[in-house]
Each structure stands twice: as C-alpha cells, then as structure tokens.
Amino acid sequence: MDIVCLDLEGVLVPEIWIAFAKASGIPELKRTTRDEPDYDKLMKWRLGILKEHGLGLKQIQDTIATIDPLPGAKEFLDELRSITQVIIISDTFTQFATPLMKKLGWPTIFCNTLEVAESGEITGFKMRIAQSKLATVKALQSVGFETIASGDSFNDLGMIQASKAGFLFRSTEQIKADYPQYPAFEEYSELLEAIKAELT
C-alpha cells in the first residue's frame, strides 16, 4: 500500500518566509531551508530578527492571508488524492498552515507548533519530533505503507532517500547537482506522471 509524502512550501505554496520578508522589508528573512540545512538554527535566527523588529504572529498571519497556492497546485493535489493517500509533511507551523490548507481543500498535514505569548510575540517553537520528515516516513513504513516522497529543500532529502521512490520538485541547482540520482521536475504534470508510475 502506497502513501505519498509531499513538502508544502516551494512545492504547493510559495515560501511563507520569503513572502513575509518582502512584506516586512526585511531581506534577511528570505533565508530558507534551501539555504540552511539546520532547521533549528534557522528558526532561532528568524525569531531573533522578529524580536529585534518587534514583529509577531499577527503580522506574519496577515501576510499568509494574501498567499495563494502555486498555480496548478490544488488541481495536482486533487488528482493525486483521488488515486492514492497523501500526507503533507512540513516543518512549518499550525498557526501558519491552516489558512493555506483551506485553500488547498483541507489535505492532511503534519507540522509543528509555535509558542506564542499573549502579546503575540513568537517566543519559541515546538517540533513535533526530531527529523520530522524522515521520522514520519519511517513510521508510515513501520505500519505497512510504502512511501513516495517529493520536496525541494535540504530538509526533504531524508524522506526522499528513505522512500521507495523520491523526486525533487522545483529544487535548487545546487541540490539537483548534489543529488543527481533523484529525478527533478519543474511541472506538476511531470511529477504526477512519475508518482503514478510508482504506484502499485
């Protein structure tokens, strides 16, 4: 039995932090998991910048409200969900993801949680589990699923490598060069066909 595991940002929706960097005028916040493999380090750095500028959850959520799924993403996801089980596994946070899940038709997502003070300041974050993407894929495999995974960033490589089939989608030239063994696609139609070919 197969289950498809997809990354969220960069694959189905634009990068939230890049959108917020533009909206807030803070270019440093454009740094993502495509640039920094250590997610814990990246998030602590982000929270430091937010604190320095007096920005909190509301300002980020206001930006997220303006974000739509990438063109074709919902149609791709709808078709994929009609033929197999799909889970989005993301290092984002419930407080960020919910409005985007509504626009995508409420697919299943496993993600993390922000710690937010009454003032709205983001004081920390709680990861669901260490190496959540890889750990989730391994857990699914332990209960009888074969996984097919796709993502675009360093933090997706674990689940891609551990799956029976893995694909890069709209990844960086560097990641594609470093991991040539994984087919890399730019269009949803190509990714859909590749996944279909792996379904048993």
Topology, pairings included?
Layout (H helix, E strand, L loop, with lengths): L1 E5 L9 H9 L14 H15 L3 H8 L8 H11 L1 E9 H10 L5 E8 L5 E5 L5 H11 L3 E6 L5 H6 L2 E5 L3 H6 L5 E2 L2 H11 L2
Parallel strand pairs: 1-2, 1-5, 2-3, 5-6, 6-7
Antiparallel strand pairs: 3-4
Helix pairs in contact: 1-3, 3-5
Q: What gyration radius follows from the Cα positions, in whole Å?
A: 17 Å
Strand content: 15-25%
Helix percentage: 40-55%
CATH architecture of the domain at 2-12 and 70-111 and 128-198: 3-Layer(aba) Sandwich
Largest sheet: 7 strands, mixed
Order of helices and strands: EHHHHEHEEHEHEHEH
How widely separated are the two ends?
A: 7 Å
Q: Globular, elongated, flat, extended or rod-shaped: what is the shape?
A: globular
Structural class of the helix and strand makeup?
Answer: alpha/beta
Major sheet: arrangement of strands: 4-3-2-1-5-6-7
Q: How many DSSP helices? A: 9
Mean pLDDT: 95
- Just give the CATH class of the domain at 2-12 and 70-111 and 128-198: Alpha Beta
Q: How many β strands by DSSP?
A: 7
CATH homologous superfamily of the domain at 2-12 and 70-111 and 128-198 - what is it? HAD superfamily/HAD-like
Q: Which parts are unreliable, with pLDDT below 50 for 5 consecutive residues or more?
A: none
Structural notes for this entry:
- With 200 residues, the protein is α/β, with parallel strands linked by helices.
- It has a domain of 124 residues: HAD superfamily/HAD-like (Rossmann fold), CATH 3.40.50.1000.
- Helix content is 44%, strand content 20%.
- It has nine helices and seven strands.
- The protein has a seven-stranded mixed beta sheet, sandwiched between helices.
- Helix 5 links the parallel strand 2 and strand 3.
- The chain is globular.
